[in-house]
Design goal:
binds protoporphyrin IX containing FE; ten-stranded antiparallel beta sheet; EC 1.11.1.6; about 15% strand; disordered N terminus; about 550 residues; single chain
């Protein structure tokens, strides 16, 4: 049930979205007037001029003229499915969110996406993938708006327009359409070295998933969970696919992009239709909510850092199953509106400066993308619980609100729900102390290390995975026109690993620079010739 809906004559309007558009046996105008012909314009004589008075002609064409809405400013290309989430009850100690309780089944809608390409771009490009899940819980909508890579490019949302401007096609030639292989992208990530970790994941096999069904998902930020007693715990969300994590080879990705640009959306829809319903376990990494919000020397408010699973194992808290395809792409996949601020009691955000900007950005962009402030009334976005808000009017308002006093408390409509001693609900959460501080426009020193975790990632790769990473950097950088961009990126690679830097430099025909930071060496990094020796058939 959504907002109270009645017709002006007091008739209850059905919640069935199809009824508004496709009921009745006859073709009609939008006003319900029966038509007998929709193939011929009204004319003065069979070969005469078309008459302006033909309302059906004008209505039909005018509506068509307005069928498109702006695509998402990022994550424009996506595919989605319905499903169900069932809690294991194992998160009860840390969160009072009701949908995590044992055996509770919550309907969900999940949208996967690429980030940079436009709506009509290809699926198997090298890019980050979005992994956004809308839970229609009994306590309201909770959205987990994550990616398939556990870290982000930037530490502060104020740089988001910049990284996206750099990643999208060049403003003069509008190329490339969907790849990161171009000068502005590499210019940005080599100048903003906090992007090194995310970029390295992109250049690894994680950047070309085999299937949406075989991707991990990550909430990326650290969240603050609140249990029934009001105690808080910091946590990171993980989705683990039951089918395991699999990637394409670069050559496969190239061929598929040409042969079947819809490869990932077809794979998802075909699998669900065939009854092979993909599943993911939701897991939590938890950390004590200490005053400094650090764990083992890692700043939990820095979204360019992971916490290795060896230090904080992922504990399963529930399972997601996607079991039904969308019936209308526009109504569901295109009009769904996710938001990191859609939270339920028991889950809260932290002071990560990246999440702060997101909390503003999603609602703001959706007002423009979905044509006004009332898109929560669209069927795909409606909570599955009664709504009683004081939001009124605005474009595309479809509710007919009752009463005269849209404010609380009031003495006219008899409605004072907040004054009845209510203490339950979201957005009050556990009191968290904000340390006394002066206003500053700079990052903390704990955000300065941009290379140790990329190095950790590189050193954890198998020989064949390292070869793939080297080939990916070499291919991408070979597409850049600017020598200075290539050279600066090589200086970044030198700060990850000398072998990585040397191999890419050789591929580009450039000298390899020395590292400018001290490389922490958890394990010796063998030369690639040694690695190659270990790869059968090479
Ligand atoms: C869309 C994830 C950072 C702005 C999306 C979507 C995902 C996502 C999955 C697609 C949602 C859908 O399927 O409809 C993330 C993650 C981030 C991140 C994991 C970092 C941890 C940011 C930041 C901003 C931002 C910092 C802005 C300050 C947007 C916008 C959209 C979007 C404007 C389009 C939303 C729409 O039109 O409905 N993001 N994002 N994102 N994101 Fe982010």
């Amino acid at each position: 049930t959504g907002p109270a809906e009645v017709s002006p004559t007091g008739q209850e309007l059905s919640g069935d979205p199809a009824e508004a558009a496709q009921a009745g046996a006859h073709l009609t105008t939008a006003q319900g007037t029966r038509l007998y012909d929709t193939d011929h314009s009204l004319k003065a004589g069979e070969r005469g001029p078309v008459l302006l008075q033909d309302h059906h002609l004008r209505e039909k064409i005018t509506h068509f003229d307005h069928e498109r809405i702006p695509e998402r400013v990022v994550h424009a290309r996506g595919a989605a499915a319905h499903g169900v989430f069932v809690g294991y009850g194992t998160a009860g100690d840390v969160s009072r969110a009701a949908f995590l309780a044992e055996g509770v089944a919550t309907p969900v809608f999940t949208r996967f996406s690429t980030v940079l390409g436009s709506r009509g771009s290809a699926d198997t490009v090298r890019d980050t993938r979005g992994f956004a899940v809308k839970f229609y819980t009994d306590e309201g909508v909770f959205d987990l708006v994550g990616n398939n890579i556990p870290v982000f490019f930037i530490q502060d949302a104020i740089k988001f327009p910049d990284i996206i401007h750099a990643g999208k096609p060049h403003p003069d030639r509008e190329i490339p359409q969907a790849q990161s292989a171009h000068d502005t992208f590499w210019d940005f990530v080599s100048l903003h070295t906090e992007a090194t970790h995310h970029t390295l994941w992109n250049m690894s096999d994680r950047g070309i998933p085999r299937s949406y069904r075989m991707m991990e998902g990550f909430g990326v930020h650290t969240f603050r969970l609140v249990n029934a007693a009001g105690a808080t715990t910091l946590a990171k969300f993980h989705w683990k696919p039951k089918l395991g994590v699999h990637s394409l080879l670069w050559e496969e990705a190239q061929v598929i992009n040409g042969v079947d640009p819809d490869f990932h959306r077809r794979d998802l829809a075909d699998a669900i239709e065939a009854g092979a319903h993909p599943q993911w376990e939701l897991g939590l990494q938890t950390f004590p909510d200490t005053e400094d919000q650090m764990f083992e020397g890692i700043d939990l408010l820095d979204s360019t850092k992971i916490v290795p699973e060896e230090l904080a194992p992922v504990q399963p808290v529930g399972v997601l199953t996607l079991n039904a395809n969308v019936s209308n792409y526009f109504a569901e996949t295109e009009q769904v509106a996710f938001h990191v601020g859609h939270l339920v009691p028991g889950i809260d955000v932290t002071d990560d400066p990246l999440v702060a900007g997101r909390l503003h950005s999603y609602l703001d962009t959706q007002i423009s993308r979905l044509g006004g402030p009332n898109f929560a009334q669209l069927p795909i976005n409606r909570p599955h619980v009664p709504v009683n808000d004081m939001l009124r009017d605005g474009r595309h308002q479809s509710a007919v609100h009752r009463g005269v006093a849209p404010y609380r408390p009031n003495s006219l409509d008899g409605g004072c729900p907040f004054l009845a001693g209510a203490t339950e609900g979201a957005f009050v959460e556990a009191p968290v102390t904000v340390p006394e501080a002066s206003k500053v426009r700079r990052a903390p020193a704990s955000y300065d290390d941009h290379f140790s975790q990329p190095r950790l990632f590189w050193l954890s790769m198998t020989p064949v995975e390292r070869e793939h990473i080297i080939s990916a950097y070499t291919f991408e950088l070979s597409k850049c026109y600017e020598q200075a961009v290539k050279e600066r990126t090589l200086r970044v690679l030198a700060n990850i690993d000398p072998v990585l830097c040397q191999e890419v430099a050789t591929g580009l025909g450039l000298p390899a620079p020395e590292a400018t930071v001290e490389l922490g060496t958890p394990a010796p990094s063998p030369a690639l010739s040694q690695l190659r020796g270990t790869w059968p058939g090479d």
